[in-house]
Amino acid sequence: MTPLDSSAALWNLLEHNRNNCEWKLTVMATSAVARETVFALRRQIAKIEGTLPERLQAPAGAPVDAPRNPTADVTPHDLTIVRRGLAVAPPDAFLRTGAEALDTALGGGLPKAALSEIHGAATRDAGAVAGFALSLVSLILKQGSRLPVLWIGTAEVFREAGFPYATGLHRLFGIEPEQLLFSEAPRLLDALWTAEEAARMTALAAVVLEIRGSPQRLDLTATRRLHARAQSAGRPVFLLRQAGEAEPTAAPVRLVLSAAPSAPRQTIAGPLAGSIGRPAFTVSIGKSRTALPGQFTLEWNPDERSFEERRTGEERAANPVPVVSASRRGKDPAPASGAVLAFATVGSPAAGDQPSPGERAAHRRPRRAG
Amino acid sequence: MISHRQANAQRIAALDERAEALHLKRGMGIADARAMHPSIDVVEADPEADRRLLESLADWCDRYTPLVAIDAADGLFLDVTGCTHLFGGERAMLDDILSRFFHQGFDVRAGLAATPGAAWAAARFSGDRIVPGGEEEALLAPLPLAALRIEPEIRASLESVGLRTAGAVMAAPRAPLARRFGGSLLLRLDQALGRLDEAVSPRLPVAPLSVERHLAEPIMLTDEIERLVKMLATTLKADLERRGEGARRLALLLFRVDGAVSRIAVGTSRPLREPLLIQKLFHERLAALEQDIDAGYGFDLVRLSVLSAATFDMQQADLTGETRDEGADIALFADRIRARLGHSAVLKPVAVESHLPERAVAMLPYAEAPQRVSAPKQPDKMPGKIQDTRPVLRPERPIRLFRSPEPIEVPATEMPEGPPLNFRWRRALYRVARAEGPERIAPEWWRQAAGQEATRDYFRIEDSDGRRYWLYRQGLYGAAHAAPRWFMHGVFA
């Protein structure tokens, strides 16, 4: 590779680095060697652009190859170098979701002073998309802010996906109704204008802009304006997109949300089978300057107002308590009727046996055949 | 010539000079007129359009005085008390009005007098006359009875007894007049002569404060209007400060050279007096109305009025000289959005005491919502009363609620009162994986007639993909006449 070739490749990459993060991630994923080259080139880019590179833990097992990059002034352990924006971000510039794996993948969390896109594949995912965005808002408000949150949407999206319901938001995310402001714009243009005006305000804790579909007006320019205003105001702008395509936008991070089956409710006697517990989301990183594509399942804890990560298969394994406890006499009273049986212990002849709390709860839950 | 239908016959309602020259008269039948002059042009009368025209003229007359009233179908009352000196005296003002109307293409008659009745008579019967105070009697005496604004029946009966002029009525003894023709005749007479006060009821409320600027060179550009607004607002600020008030509603009146008047109003959620902020609000309003405002040949008079004002709370500044009030920023932001997108563009949820989910939250426009909502009061701890220490179990509520519940098809439920096994919503089929419920929500019987709305049983549903919904069944199986219907009401996170 001649010096000319390599510098041309470098500039190419620089352009890609600016415009197309997905491409980069694909490259990174293909092979370890390619990844290594990308990291090396990225260090170069950071040097050329004159910005201080940020350090991130190298992915486990990434080979250390310092001699191949004599220009890179990094220690072998900080192999990956990432760049966010044109300035070096202070550590509190990130909103930590609290789910370790997601935070690490995003390089410390979601940027606080930026536009972040949250996508839902279909309008019916509006609950998950809105729920995740509101959990992020709740995390921001948890830090002691009493500022209001503005939710902007077009009339179409509120009609199709439902209007945010203040009572529900208060119960689940601890956002007081007084802290909420809604703006319903008749047209997309008006919604974008409102969002731009709101994004520059420091008197708002966060701005949520919700848009359905992939309108042409929501292009690179429009999102860049939003992003720039969010950056200068130091407030997050969440762009919720229902049933939209992944188009190039100025948002540094795009998350794709879908609902995950919730874990059963926790009772004193253990999980209550068949119940619907805390809200759970499947988050996949659609675009990020730093992260590898990945999928995470998060669960929102409304009491603590925090995220918990769910390991796969956990909800299946951690269910030691039977739905209806087996008969105390050792014989299932009605084995033919199916796995779930209501009022099993009531009919059992176990005199003096008090039903356990789990059983009592089982009586109340809807009766189902399986 | 304009015709109208009166007593089942087409008659002449109004006519121009050329028709008058043909010896046609008002009230004449169209058929007769056509027989005399077959070439006349007849147009059907449009009282609605006439009224609109008169109202726009009244709007325009606002430039002379804020007290403009519409008189019947073809007249305007202008209360110019205290305004004439602004236009160089009574005669100059009257000339100005007449010449401006003439240039707009109107043929008007005007009269100026100390009482509305005398002015009315002067305008209609003696033409463009200024009646000095005290000379009302001299004006009215030779005029016919119609100048007294009395009903035609009274007029006819007065004429039948030989009283043909106002002077004759004035000379007649009052008591028999009142007895025979009723009180309204004397009332009109006294009002015209100034013995009784007659109030002109203005068609628009008079703004407590307004500032205006007459322009020698008409302006057309929005930028120029905005700059002018700021200048006017600066003048207004001093007045507002003196009164210790801030503006809650402001109106900008743009008088076009050719007589059209545009009225642009903005509202604020907090009292406002800062010229720059007022300019900002009008900037948004003008941007939103860009297509609707036709500058035409330009505006030659711009007026900024405070329609309603409220006490302005002064803010104590800290030592750095800055007052920090985040609410003010939000209020201004909300006002600007409202100026551009309409009254209910920024909404604030307010909790309402109701167990019906759709009624539990009211969405109010920002300006109307209470600024500080106090937390619901805790019941007093009474000594001796057993406290209920159980945790409050509040049912889960969705995070999004459909404005109107959407009907869904439920082919089968597991059991009559149970949750559905699957359902069809917006043409897609959903399989229910898990369900919780029912939560029964009864209608508010104290609000509507009994039996109007059925009981709802709500279920939390999780479908096979993990999405969570809030469904309800309206009505009970077997209880009502019709089969229960199912609705989708909200989605959970």
At CATH level 3, the topology of the largest domain in chain B is Dna Ligase, domain 1
CATH A-level architecture of the largest domain in chain A:
3-Layer(aba) Sandwich
Please report the first level of CATH classification, the CATH class of the largest domain in chain B.
Answer: Alpha Beta
CATH topology description of the largest domain in chain A: Rossmann fold
The second-level CATH architecture of the largest domain in chain B is 2-Layer Sandwich
Structure description:
The complex is a heterodimer of chains A (370) and B (493). Chain A is an alpha/beta fold and 370 residues long. Chain A folds into three domains: 3-82, no CATH class; 91-315, Rossmann fold, CATH 3.40.50.300; 322-370, no CATH class. Helices cover 34% and strands 21% of the residues of chain A. Chain A has twelve helices and 16 strands. Chain A has helices at 3-19, 21-30, 32-49, 100-105, 126-142, 155-161, 166-173, 188-199, 220-233, 314-317, 344-347, 357-364, and strands at 54-56, 80-82, 94-95, 110-111, 115-120, 149-154, 163-164, 180-185, 206-212, 237-242, 253-260, 265-267, 270-272, 280-287, 295-301, 306-309. Chain A has a nine-stranded mixed β-sheet, with helices on both faces. A two-stranded antiparallel ribbon of chain A has the order 1-2. In chain A, a hairpin with a 7-residue loop joins strand 14 and strand 15 (295-301). The longest helix of chain A is centred in the first third of the chain and has 18 residues, at 32-49. Mean pLDDT of chain A is 74; it is low at 19-29, 55-88, 314-341 and 344-363. Chain B has 493 residues and is of the alpha+beta class. Chain B folds into four domains: 2-45, MutS, DNA mismatch repair protein, domain I (3-Layer(aba) Sandwich); 78-193, no CATH class; 209-314 and 326-339, DNA polymerase, Y-family, little finger domain (Dna Ligase, domain 1); 400-491, no CATH class. In chain B, 29% of the residues lie in helices and 28% in strands. Chain B has 13 helices and 19 strands. A six-stranded antiparallel β-barrel of chain B has the order 14-15-16-17-18-19. In chain B, a hairpin with a 3-residue loop joins strand 4 (68-71) and strand 5. In chain B, helix 12 packs parallel to helix 13. The radius of gyration of chain B is 34 Å and the shape is elongated. Residues 373-378 of chain B have low confidence and may be disordered. At the A-B interface, helix 5, helix 6, strand 7, helix 7 and strand 8 of A face helix 13, strand 12, strand 14, strand 16 and strand 17 of B. Strand 8 of chain A pairs antiparallel with strand 12 (346-351) of chain B.
